[in-house]
Amino acid sequence: MPRIVILSASVRQGRASHRVALYLEQYLTGTADIELDLIDLNSYSFPVFEERFKFQEDPSPSVREFVHRMAAADGIIIVTPEYNGGYPASLKNVIDLLVDEWKRKPVAVCTVSGGAFGGTQVITSLLFTLWKIKAWVVNAHLPVPKVEEAFTPEGLPLDPEGWTKRTKPFVNELLWAVEARKRME
After folding, report:
1. What pLDDT sits at residue 50?
2. Fewer CB within 10 A of the terminal residue: the chain, N end or C end?
3. What is the DSSP secondary-structure string of 56-89?
4. Is the pTM of this model over 0.70?
5. Among 126, 123, 65, which residue's Cα sits nearest to residue 91?
6. What is the CATH number of the domain that holds 10?
């Protein structure tokens, strides 16, 4: 059974992208035979990046826990808002914290915004960073425009049928990559 991490990247007060992370958690719980782990970066108090995990002399227990959860994942869904055309520092912080844990790990990206373009401007900078650390970014993207009009704070879609139609190929592509990676090991 594949282990999928949903990484909710925003730590901002009043964040709306977490609604989509909650939706994906509910969707995956109801539709796939997987082990699911929602990692909410808001529940951690990571310091600003100082050193990669493997070079830290005495990492905090929360950093160790985070690294363990990420390393145990067979695939990762990153749910990130777009801030001024980029992704949040909280996400960059944890991407840089790890190196080997990202290598060849299937990663699917869900971008979120309050505007009409669904965070699509963030994808370029995030893809470059993920490629640089050799993550396997799957060929699927789930942009979520006007998030506050699309999902309730609890992660319920206001158009369930429409979001299921968009989400299914996104999730299937990630699960295909997870299975392909297992067969190649």
Report:
1. 64
2. C
3. -SS--HHHHHHHHHHHH-SEEEEEEE-BTTB--H
4. yes
5. 126
6. 3.40.50.360
